[in-house]
Design brief:
heterodimer; A: mainly alpha; 11 helices; elongated; B: 545 residues; alpha+beta; Dipeptide-binding Protein, domain 3; 7-stranded mixed sheet; 5-stranded mixed sheet; 32% helix
Chain lengths: 258, 545
């Protein structure tokens, strides 16, 4: 508990809640279960939306979508960006030049624009959004890992390992990777936060396929339309998103501090 | 431990900030917008809120309806449509004649008319405008298509011009009455060229463009020498508005607060719930304006199973409770739509109301007769193992997502599954339609002439999203634009509307109504025959509210 802190506990709870959403959500997130735009009450903890659906149930089910985006982003960023950055930083040469040029070109574009380009090519849908949001953070992440690998490879213990006859791949795997891991993981978690935010933004803008599926960004957009009459919809989605991002960022800070 | 307490306190304060930001945003908006209102010159200038930022504001080039809101009053047109009767009345042309074969329109122009830059208006000015609109380098997105079968013009004398057509085209007068064919000063057209003219527009209308800062505002000033108004412009206006500033309020959530705070005096496209809240205020009047043209509707793809079957389409319409949708999404501020034209469109046929009254029982029986049963217990009907599943393409505008979600919910209760595919923009919608992988798509268009249907229902139409090919429909739609006899046109359009509904080509939802509201320091707000464009010359300042 001390290591992950309150934000970590919040994320664990969120993950559990999203996994058990079908069991613990009071209502079907797609069903009209009451009158439209009812204020929060004992029956509907966060009120109902314009269609008469339970906002609390939709927030719970929306958590699963947000966290799956987060996981896809974390895995793809850490695996692809990490491997590329590590190899480029460690081996240098043409691979390094190629990665630098590519990431420089991609960094010139705002990450949201990059995500929009990916969506244009890959088509519209939830999975595509998750991938687009993840890939848009890749250039920045691979640059961080590359820089870490470059600083690690000049350390005396790397030279010592080489002097003892260790092969390049073995040095990379056994000495560079473990030492580059903490800061890479921390950067990966920050990339995950950006991916969550970008995915929510894309849903907010109307990408993502089915508008009836619960998603925090889309709920925020829908809540804005009825903000004066029913501020709880936008507030609930906004608060869920903000707290999750705060928790993820705090987790990244803790990982970096260790 | 102390660090944990600190961190908890930090997170709690962050949550409080989120709450304060959300709950206080309305208050902040009020506070922020007040200084703008105070900075206005009080009596003679008003602010009109635009709701869209179109890509361009040149009526000859661009197609957005938004541009007409300010520019309808900058330009006069050869003819006008009376806002109430929808009849054609003289504009810059005092009178006109149509040859018996419908191929030559002769316009006798008004004398003594001057453009805002002092240039005289005459037949050569009309010719220069037609040249500009039809020139390929202008790349007109709308005006050129509105000219239909226009071939050439002949300038008979200084105040007489003939428009010669290749084939009869009855909607020509309707086109000539629209701002897209407004007559601009030839001198200004020459001086500024294709790209820059939109920033320096010069017409003959009751207001002249003073300044246009793209993305920021447009300023119009009253034309003091305007003496050639159509009959529905109020020339005895005791307190006309001297200056009108148009500002952009593209986010729907900001419109009502802007009006309440006084940052804007008139605004349209209000959210229904906001409109109801504003209507309860003493200092604001609500003015819902029905728009002629097509309703909010879902077009069936008749080339893809199961909506290729007429009975399935009929059952889907019957299964839909449109009144419930209007009640919840539009707060009863829009009429239910029954056919391919809204009730305020000329040649609307009220008989369409008889088609497909809502009945879950009839819908269920129809589908059962076709063989649709829930054979696997998943609460979705299926036929030969294939579930009754509809792919619906939903744009983000016009409350289509909210309507589509209600449809999905209503249909689910009746064993019809709907997969909604939201598209964020027009390009996405056209690409989705191009693929052919859909059963319904939400789309509509506006216009005071029913020939707007031709763009959708002709078998070779650009927007034939229904993939319909019906010989009768083709013939009637074509003949209806070739005859100028109103009785004949009524016959054709009665047939067309009946046929479209009999074949269940569309699921109409609601007649479009623009929810406008204005502060009561202004009176006389009225709109032209097309519903979108205000008659700014008729606005009267009543005093401070």
């Amino acid at each position: 508990m001390r290591r992950i802190g309150l934000p970590g506990a919040f994320l664990v709870c969120l993950a559990l809640a999203s996994l058990c959403a079908p069991l613990i959500a009071p209502y079907d997130p797609l069903a009209e279960v009451g009158q439209a735009l009812q204020a929060p009450s004992a029956r509907h903890w966060l009120g109902t939306d314009l269609i008469g659906r339970d906002v609390f149930s939709r927030i719970l089910h929306g958590a699963a979508r947000t966290l799956s985006v987060a996981l896809i982003a974390l895995c793809s960023t850490v695996l692809i960006g990490g491997a590329l950055g590590l190899c480029a930083g460690f081996f240098g040469g043409a691979l390094d030049w190629l990665l630098l040029s590519l990431s420089d070109a991609l960094l010139a574009l705002p990450s949201l624009l990059l995500a929009l380009s990916v969506l244009t090519l890959a088509g519209n849908g939830s999975l595509q959004i998750a991938l687009a949001a993840a890939l848009s953070g890749l250039p920045a992440y691979s640059r961080i890992v590359r820089a870490t690998a470059r600083s690690v490879r000049t350390q005396p213990y790397i030279e010592a390992a080489r002097a003892l006859g260790a092969g390049e791949l073995s040095v990379l795997w056994r000495h560079v990777l473990p030492n580059a891991l903490p800061s890479s993981l921390s950067a990966g978690v920050i990339a995950m936060a950006w991916a969550i935010l970008n995915a929510a933004t894309l849903h907010f803008l109307g990408f993502g396929g089915d508008p009836s599926l619960p998603e925090w960004g889309a709920m925020l957009a829908e809540g804005r339309l009825v903000f004066r009459a029913a501020p709880w919809i936008a507030f609930a989605a906004g608060a869920a998103l903000t707290l999750t991002l705060l928790a993820v960022n705090d987790l990244a800070r803790r990982l970096a501090a260790q | 431990m102390f660090r944990n307490v600190l961190r908890t306190a930090f997170l709690l304060s962050c949550a409080s900030i989120v709450f304060l930001v959300c709950a206080g945003s309305m208050f902040l908006l009020n506070v922020l917008t007040r200084p703008i209102a105070a900075a206005q010159p009080a009596a003679s200038r008003i602010v009109y809120g635009l709701t869209l930022l179109p890509s361009g504001f040149d009526p000859h080039i661009n197609a957005s309806a938004e541009l007409g809101i300010p520019l309808r009053s900058v330009y006069d047109t050869l003819v006008y449509r009376d806002p109430i009767t929808k009849a054609f009345v003289p504009g810059l042309a005092e009178r006109w004649e149509i040859s018996p074969d419908g191929l030559i329109y002769t316009f006798y122009l008004r004398r003594g008319v001057r453009f805002h830059d002092g240039e005289p208006f005459n037949a050569l000015a009309v010719a220069a405008n037609l040249d500009r609109i039809t020139a390929p380098e202008t790349r007109s997105q709308k005006a050129i298509f509105m000219l239909g079968s226009f071939e050439r013009y002949i300038v008979r004398d200084e105040y007489t011009i003939e428009l010669v057509l290749k084939a009869p085209f009855a909607p020509l007068l309707d086109s000539l009455s629209q701002v897209y064919l407004g007559i601009a000063s030839p001198k200004a057209l020459r001086e500024y060229g294709t790209d820059l003219y939109q920033l320096h527009q010069v017409g003959t209308g009751p207001y002249q463009m003073v300044e246009f800062i793209p993305g920021d505002y447009i300023l119009l000033r009253r034309n003091p020498i305007y003496r050639w108004a159509p009959p529905f412009y109020r020339m005895d206006n005791p307190a006309p508005v001297e200056e009108i500033e148009f500002r952009f309020f593209t986010d729907p959530a900001t419109r009502a607060p802007a009006l309440e705070s006084g940052a804007v005096d008139i605004i349209g496209e209000l959210a229904p719930l906001d409109a109801l809240a504003l209507a309860r205020r003493d200092d604001i009047a609500l003015l819902p304006q029905p728009i002629p043209g097509m309703p909010l509707q879902f077009l069936f793809n008749t080339a893809k199973a199961p909506t290729d079957r007429l009975e399935v389409r009929r059952a889907i319409i019957t299964a839909t409770d449109r009144v419930a949708i209007i009640d919840s999404v539009f707060q009863q501020l829009s009429p239910v739509a029954y056919g391919p034209l809204t009730a305020v469109t000329p040649f609307y046929e009220p008989q369409v109301k008889q088609y497909y009254p809502h009945s879950r029982e009839v819908a269920r029986r129809t589908l059962a007769e076709l063989g649709y049963m829930d054979n696997n217990g998943d609460k979705i009907l299926d036929l030969n193992g294939v579930p009754l599943r509809l792919i619906v393409i939903v744009p983000t505008w016009g409350y289509a997502p909210q309507v589509a979600q209600r449809l999905q919910s209503q249909w689910r209760e009746q064993g019809i599954e709907a997969e909604l595919r939201q598209v964020p923009n027009l390009a996405g919608l056209l690409a989705a339609v191009q693929s052919g992988d859909y059963h319904l798509v939400a789309f509509n268009d506006f216009g005071a002439d029913p020939s707007v249907l031709n763009n959708f229902y002709l078998s070779d139409a650009r927007n034939n999203f229904m993939r319909v090919s019906n010989a009768n429909l083709d013939q009637w739609l074509r003949q209806a634009v070739q005859t100028s006899d109103p009785a004949q046109r009524q016959n054709f359009y009665t047939g067309v509307q009946g046929l479209i509904m009999d074949q269940a080509l569309i699921l109409p939802i609601r007649d479009y109504v623009n929810l406008n509201a204005h502060r009561k320091r202004i009176s006389g707000l009225a709109f032209d025959a097309y519903g979108w464009f205000p008659l700014l010359a008729n606005l009267t300042l009543v005093g401070d509210d």
